User: What shape does this take?
Amino acid sequence: MKKITVGALLLSMMFVGVKAQSLKSPDGKFEMNFQLKEGIPYYNLKYNGAVVVEDSKLGLRLFKDSAIKFASEIAKPEDAKFDLNNGFTKTDEKRDSKNETWQPVLGEKKNYINHYNELALTLNQASTDRSIVVKFRLFNDGLGFRYEFPQQKNLNYFVIREEDSEIDFPTDMKAWWMVADYDSQEYQYQETKVSEIPAKWSQAADANASQKLVKNAVQSPLMLKKEGKEPLYVNVAEAAVLDYPASHLEVDAQNFKFKTHLTADRQGAKGYIQTPSVTPWRTIIVSPKAEEVMDSKMIFNLNEPTKYTDTSYIHPTKYMGVWWEMIIGKSQWAYSTAENVHIDKTDFTKLTPNGKHAANNTKVKEYIDFAAENGFQGLLIEGWNIGWEDWFGHSKEFVFDFITPYPDFDIKMLNDYAHSKGIKLIMHHETSGSATNYERWSDKAFQLMNKYGYDAVKTGYVGDIIPRGEHHYSQWTINHYYRIAEKANEYKIMINSHESVRPTGESRTYPNYISAEAARGTEYEAFGGNKPDHQTVLPFTRWMGGSMDYTPGIFQTKLDYYFPGDKRFVKTTLVKQLALYVTMYMPLQMAADLPENYKKHMDAFQFIKDVAADWDDTKILSAEPGDYVITARKAKGTENWFVGGITDENKRDYTVDFSFLDKGKKYEAVIYEDGKDADYIDNPQSYNIYKKQITSKSKINFKMARSGGFAISIKPVN
Assistant: This one.
């Protein structure tokens, strides 16, 4: 009798173990199913009844204790008992839902809608008496899930060996991807089938100032497309990467499967955890329309509201900079010819000037004059501070002090001059990867900014990270970026970081962290170059989690203009550069070219002067990753609209339908289009500008040149 009872109990437990828990999106189009198979957690995802993600494993592998004494990721069989990926039973289930509207401090729309259904499953591992929670949120545009670790007797401190969240797709989709790297996202995007990634991977990376490639892995956000009669677009990313390393995606090309790969530190550890704690959200955005994927705000919704009590100092800024002439090699950051300087010992007034230092009083005043005359709010100046003579490549910790200007940069005089003309200077803090040094100097640096009226800073992290052994995307460095953001908030300063981690929606929580680079920007046009389709991929990848400081606006695209015989050029028409101000969301918006080049094309420059940097509404009119993007945006607090369209290396026709405008109103449109003979190689500066009265019933056809585009400024007629 006892045996029968035990057998019946075991049978009942097995049945419970395979029973799926289901969750549907608010509109019912998505369904997520979770189940335990022999104690191992799996989930899948369906859209309109069709499988988007097949049964995919969840779980984490841990080191055997929290004091790592080795630098190896090699797992031993006996270590498996410490893992959090098997032997589970479900002990609790909670459901919740939310439908709220919130307003970003800066954003692509005035209101973001956060509408989801939630399922939280508590799983107990009997062999260790540890429990974790797997939480799912299903939105009308896709799925987010994460792990939560309640504080408990047997799980207070632990170290992650790897997170093994899988995403298993049923078909071989087209993918837009770049190689995975612990230290850089500055690579060209590749367009292949998932099955073709390994064959292409080794040729997909070029050299970088700091580099730790992850073989046969790709970075997120990853854009995918199921082709055929019923196409489906899928975006795989992460949200709220805080106190945790950024992740990459290992590729199983034969099975069309991806698995999380976290950024490690020197010891091979991928996360030092103290409970209670949570991981970032893994996100899967799905739609039959590319435009809806690009328009998704799920990643922002999965971040927490800000705890800042005052955000009034945070504002959009249109700026110019003493920058591009150094990028192309016309000028230099360094002041002197010295090759070895000491910040606390060297007398820079006694060094021999190199004659090419850009951040000098005379030149900066010229930039201030031009920026002020044309309605800009800010001017970035790089190379103003001592230390650039040996700033890079020496693993030098005390590389800058962020407070001492070069002899030819009068910080008080220039700030007074700028303020008299309505311009605020934008501070530049290059760290050369020495994050420890920056933290040591941050209070004094921000105090100096407050003293002279700076309210924004561009930070930089070129080179290997110090503390040595950390990476740009490891847990310690992630925490550093947000410590700096919090410190900057104390001084009412906005942050624009370069060479940092890609944003994953944290601007909701840290709204003063208004922009970042974290991808291959315009500067690479002067280095290895960007392909003509590059800007049509970025809105589906890098931009999914936050604004990028792409630094567009280059009118003189051929560098042989400065250096006869130079083969480098910006692979775009002049009009495409205008359109980028609309297709790319940039609340910190740079006109990157030299004033002398804008003076030759003031009629085209007018669009950059007019275009807004923050928005009440955004409509993705049409888009296809790798091919084209057409975007319309309504300027914050006005009835003015701007439209931008860009294409890849192919010529393209597109007809703008203005039905997004208010019915019954008349508008004046100023139209900037590629000239009939425009071509990004042969004739990039050919353009045509004209005005036209339009209504919501109007339609205008555009013929975009190769790597060209169009831009439209629209204002109501009074």
About this structure: Residues 557 and 570 are 5 Å apart (CA to CA). Residues 1-17 have pLDDT under 50 and may be disordered. The longest strand covers residues 88-102. Residues 435-452 form the longest helix (18 residues).
